[in-house]
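Model it.
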Amino acid sequence: MGPLIPQGFVNADLNLFFAFVIGLGFGYVLEQAGFSSSRKLAGVFYGYDFVVLRVFFTAAITAMTGLLFFSYMGWIDYNLLYINPTFLWSSIVGGVIMGFGFILGGFCPGTSLTGAVIGKIDAMVFIVGMFIGIFIFGEFYDVFEPIYTGSPLGNIFVYDSLGMGRDWFAMMLIAVALFAFVATQYIEDRVNKTSDIEKKARPSYWIPSSIILSAGLLLILLPSQPRSSWHETSPEKLLKMMNNGEHLVNIDEVAYSLVNGKDRPVLLVDVRNPEVFNQFSLPGAINIPLEQILDHRYDPILRSSEQKVILYSNSNTLATEAWLIATRAGIKDLNVLSGGLNGFVQTIFNEEHLADTYDLNILQQARFRDKVKNYFLSGKAAPETKSAVTPVIKIVDIEKPAKGGC
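Modeled.
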């Protein structure tokens, strides 16, 4: 589900359900477009039917344009999209094999399933052949591995390889697609000897062509980054939150959480640099340096719905800066430890807790702080988590499998 799950729009537990629904819709569209017919699919190689090429070109430029505009508006985080790594030799060999299979069988893997579902025998035979190929590949993987993993190029983009900007490449692809529509229609008419009456009866495509061409030009003319995203917190609201001080958490609440160990209701995030963090930090804290506070790997941590996320630094300054940046970027419900690490140490360890007073609240607070002090000094504090590496590795493992597929 692309960036929808990390952004919280779609529940991760429903991922497979939505994939199944989208798969059904995709199969329905393929069948309705006539892609369950091998004759229609093979027509692109013989020049009498280019509908496959036109459909896939349309899908490519529509999805590309929508994705770029949604990314520009801040509705989709482009950086969260998974890009299949490129292995040059497997791409070339796989493309040649698929091309021959397409010509001989008249199907690709997706359209063969669509054809098989509606009872096409040739599609079923194609699927059997496909599974035989999968079996052979699996059984003799060691033989094929040098080709399969040969010449890895990483997550490269075509426009990077061409040395041109992303928006210019989008415009070029739109122009190529429009040219292909015209050229293939001309070839199709020549091969099928289409009459003038049939040509005149076709609908005009000037309006959709103009729209997509205008969208491509707009992508080039727009500035590289929008002034703000829709999910960002406005400066006025941010200022009001700062003045209210609702984001500040007092030291006693954090101390209570630390004493409760693994069942602590708060998640402490140290925003200082790793060197200082490794020298001393609060038990259970994880390290997300200020300059990495908007790194998408840390999104699930900062957006935790199970724990109260509290940022801290030596004083309020660095943590407040991190809070401002993250809250401005749309990360909600973050908090800052009031007084920072210095305030915590001063309050718990250096101040005299037992006060000469009859105020029950003050006496209760003094006894609690004294208890926390003894808890730390006796070595019973929750063990320190040295870094945020563990949760980060889990996220990376999910988003970037070692090898991509079709």
